[in-house]
Structure to design on (244 residues):
């Protein structure tokens, strides 16, 4: 059984992304197969060299490098979205075309969307 | 089929908790279906605030959930981290954080996200209400 954490909320617009990543890490801690998909406003999470203050919220980007320690090795994005962004993104992502994105969604038994 | 409910919408700024209870009542009305547990996360943890007092001529969704859960022996889990972040403590957490008051309503229990993982593994379907 595999679970997907599907992120589409902005990392700076509330606590949704923080609480979504908390859930992903707990799935990893319990040795459950877990992947992450990032789209829409949540792509801001991936932008390199961001430096939020504590008032902006927790520096969630820094959590990305630690995902592998929880056996979270698949972080999917849509190639059509990321190719249009004029900024550098965290390198651990896998960009999928539309067909592969839909196939990826279909491969997960549970999808938690934030 | 065995269901669990994952509720994330605010009990005041959304209809998530109300719609979820409608769904839960429909599930238990059929013998072949059951509910493994309910997990409140994000803004939905406000459901368990014992100090929230809706007007008497309006639905008290907290009380309705507690009554339903007791009647059908269904656990009402509230994410402990999400609850503490939003000022909802049980007696043990109030003591741990050295504050005088606590406000977790009867019938609800603070649990870690591991309980949501368990519900996910033990249920045929997890249905989200936001």
């Amino acid at each position: 059984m595999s679970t997907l954490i599907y992120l589409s909320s902005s990392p700076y617009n509330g606590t949704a992304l923080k609480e979504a990543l908390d859930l992903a890490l707990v799935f990893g801690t319990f040795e459950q197969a877990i992947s992450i998909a990032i789209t829409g406003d949540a792509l801001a999470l991936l932008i390199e060299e961001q430096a939020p203050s504590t008032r902006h919220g927790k520096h969630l980007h820094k959590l990305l490098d630690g995902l592998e320690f929880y056996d979270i090795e698949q972080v999917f994005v849509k190639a059509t979205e990321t190719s249009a962004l004029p900024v550098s993104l965290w390198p651990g992502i896998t960009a999928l075309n539309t067909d592969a994105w839909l196939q990826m969604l279909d491969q997960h038994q549970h999808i938690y969307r934030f | 089929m065995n269901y669990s409910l994952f509720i994330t919408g605010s009990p005041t700024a959304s209809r998530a908790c109300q719609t979820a209870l409608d769904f839960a009542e429909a599930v238990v009305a059929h013998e072949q279906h059951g509910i493994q547990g309910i997990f409140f996360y994000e803004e939905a943890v406000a459901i368990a605030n014992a100090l929230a007092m809706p007007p008497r001529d309006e639905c008290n969704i907290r009380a309705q959930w507690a009554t339903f859960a007791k009647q059908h022996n269904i656990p009402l889990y509230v994410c402990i981290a999400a609850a503490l972040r939003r000022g909802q403590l049980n007696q043990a957490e109030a003591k741990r954080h050295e504050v005088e008051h606590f406000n977790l309503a009867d019938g609800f229990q603070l649990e870690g996200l591991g309980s949501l993982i368990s519900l996910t593994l033990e249920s045929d379907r997890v249905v989200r209400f936001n």
